[in-house]
């Protein structure tokens, strides 16, 4: 994928009745690379890193449950909860099957 290609594609899906969001930086033929943000952050904070890595990797950046445009009750412990892990795992599987 040339460095001049457009930015990521924003995608939405539902897992466990929650609306979840992630951005896919394309390059599906490359090895997958998941960039997960920290608590009280969002997936677009990885843009500068994803931009640099997308020529060699299929970069996926999910919003954790309750953050940015993902649904779910936001709490200080949301990213550490098992349901968040399940949602993130679902996001990974779904994105890499495309």
Give a brief description.
By secondary structure, the protein is α+β, with helices and mostly antiparallel strands. The protein has helices at about 45-55, 80-95; strands at about 10-15, 20-25, 30-35, 60.
Describe this structure in words.
The chain is an alpha+beta fold and 98 residues long. Helices cover 22% and strands 22% of the residues. It has two helices and four strands. It has a four-stranded mixed beta sheet with strand order 1-2-4-3, covered by helices on one side. The longest helix is centred in the C-terminal third of the chain and has 15 residues, at 82-96. It is globular, with a radius of gyration of 13 Å. Mean pLDDT is 74; it is low at 74-82.
Please give the structural blueprint.
Blueprint: E1 9-15, E2 18-24, E3 32-34, H1 47-53, E4 58-62, H2 82-96
Parallel strand pairs: 3-4
Antiparallel strand pairs: 1-2, 2-4
CATH homologous superfamily, by name?
Alpha/Beta hydrolase fold, catalytic domain
Structural class: alpha+beta
How large is the count of helical segments?
2
Q: If you consult CATH, what is the topology?
A: Rossmann fold
Count of domains: 1
Task: Supply database-style keywords.
single chain; 98 residues; Rossmann fold; four-stranded mixed sheet; 22% strand
